[in-house]
Amino acid sequence: MQIYLAPMEGITGHVYRRVYSKIYKGVDKYFTPFIATNQTFKMKNREKREIDPKYNEGMNVIPQLLTNNAQQFVWYAREIQKLGYKEVNLNAGCPSGTVVAKRKGSGMLSDLDIFDEFLDEVFTTMGNEMDISIKTRIGISDFSEIEDIINLYNKYPIKELTIHPRTRDDFYKNKVSFEAFELANQLARKDLPICFNGDIKTVEDAINVQQKYQNVKSIMLGRGILANPNLPEQIVEKKVNLSSTEYYIPEISKLEELAEGVFQGYLEEFTGEKDAVNRMKEFWIYLANPLMELNGMKKALKAITKSKDKKSYEVANKEMFRLLRENKN
Ligand SMILES: Cc1cc2nc3c(=O)[nH]c(=O)nc-3n(C[C@H](O)[C@H](O)[C@H](O)COP(=O)(O)O)c2cc1C
Predict the structure, then answer these.
(1) Are 203 and 233 in contact (CB under 8 A)?
(2) Which of 16, 37, 60, 283 lies at a CB distance of 3.0 to 4.6 Å from 67, suitable for a disulfide?
(3) DSSP string spanning 259-272?
(4) 3-state secondary structure of 65
(5) Whose CA is nearest to atom 2 of ligand 1?
(6) In the CATH hierarchy, which fold is given to the domain comprising 2-242?
(7) What whole-number distance in Å separates Cα of residue 217 and Cα of residue 289?
(8) Contacts by 292-301, CB closer than 8 A, 24 or more apart
(9) How far is CA 232 from the centre of its chain?
(10) Which atom of ligand 1 is nearest to the CA of 225?
């Protein structure tokens, strides 16, 4: 079973990926957060850094594009290829209102004829030039169009289809629908590799997907890794079974290395320390999320989310680690 790090805008950028990959094992592919194409056919410096090979050394990185314009897709894909990448991923899942309003991300699913024209132009123009994979949701407000959506994908030589079985209207709420995934998986062409994404938070969740869907050879993890960076390694080694409701605190020394490395990386990436501190708030919100029942966690997290500068963040960060150490199971 291959394990992928999910693209997460504002979180799993090159700073997080670089630091994470030096500390933890188990991730086979790292997807970049989406790069939104534009009609200037020019990448912003921030986007260039995201895919610059020197910031992505030692990792198998797949750049992701967000667009509904085939010409722009092809131009960006070719630029990406010039840097040595062999695969590019199309975002057909982003549920954000502004994105969907422009019929991008999961908004592409709202008119399958137009989406078909887009895919036709992309695949006809690019031929075998490079691998194109897609990450998709399978519905806008319900799952009634699954068959049409999958039939559309079945028409094209997609390298791999990652399915996040939520509708656009679910955003990240509600549970993933195994029923919808099962149907999509059955309808997909037998030679189309399928990757499962959504709500894999424990070793048991991963084993469940593996056992249920024998053809699924890859899983993509987002919030599960943010909450427990050890998760991919635990899945590979089937080490920790978290079927109980008990909390699990990830390995502290590695976590310290990760938090420190990512913070330093953000300090270098951004001009103001405030931006770096704000990014670390997100980092800690995802990490602390499964640990909110711990005595003192609410207060420790609040100190981090209230910190205004490097100094106050570092104090709050220290206190967080004191709490985690004290409660390490
Ligand atoms: C803050 C945030 C940012 C995200 N950014 C992206 C993105 O840039 N591209 C994308 O395809 N999905 C994005 N996603 C969706 C995730 O890749 C993933 O599909 C989703 O979180 C479900 O997987 P999980 O339950 O393992 O987290 C984002 C999700 C969140 C919460």
Answers:
(1) no
(2) 37
(3) HHHHHHHHHHHSSS
(4) strand
(5) 8
(6) TIM Barrel (3.20.20)
(7) 28
(8) 293/247, 294/247, 294/323, 294/327, 295/327, 296/323, 297/323
(9) 14
(10) 26
* Ligand 1 atom at minimum distance from 6 CA: 17
Tokens 């711990």 map to which residue?
294
User: Ligand 1: which atom is nearest the Cα of residue 164?
Assistant: 19
- Within the chain, where are the H helices? 14-23, 45-51, 70-82, 97-101, 112-126, 146-154, 178-187, 203-212, 223-227, 231-237, 252-269, 273-288, 297-306, 310-327
**Per-residue pLDDT in tens (0 to 9) along the chain, 329 residues:** 999 999 999 999 999 999 999 999 999 999 999 999 999 999 999 999 999 999 999 999 999 999 999 999 999 999 999 999 999 999 999 999 999 999 999 999 999 999 999 999 999 999 999 999 999 999 999 999 999 999 999 999 999 999 999 999 999 999 999 999 999 999 999 999 999 999 999 999 999 999 999 999 999 999 999 999 999 999 999 876 655 556 788 999 999 999 999 999 999 999 999 999 999 999 999 999 999 999 999 999 999 999 999 999 999 999 999 999 999 86
Please list every protein residue whose CB sits less than 6 Å from any atom of ligand 1.
Answer: 6-11, 33-34, 64, 91, 93-94, 135, 164, 172, 197-200, 221-224
Compute the distance between CA of residue 136 and CA of residue 108 in angstroms, rounded to an integer.
Answer: 10
Q: How many CA atoms lie within 13 A of 144 on its CB side?
A: 3
Atom of ligand 1 nearest to the CA of 223: 27
Q: Which amino acid is at 224?
A: G
Residue of 3, 4, 9 to mutate, ligand 1, most atoms within 8 A of C-beta: 9
Phi-psi region of 104 (alpha: psi -120 to 50; beta: other; left: phi over 0): beta
Nearest CA residue ID for atom 3, ligand 1: 8
Domain ranges of the chain: 2-242, 252-328
**What span, in angstroms and rounded, lies between the C-alpha atoms of 1 and 3?**
6
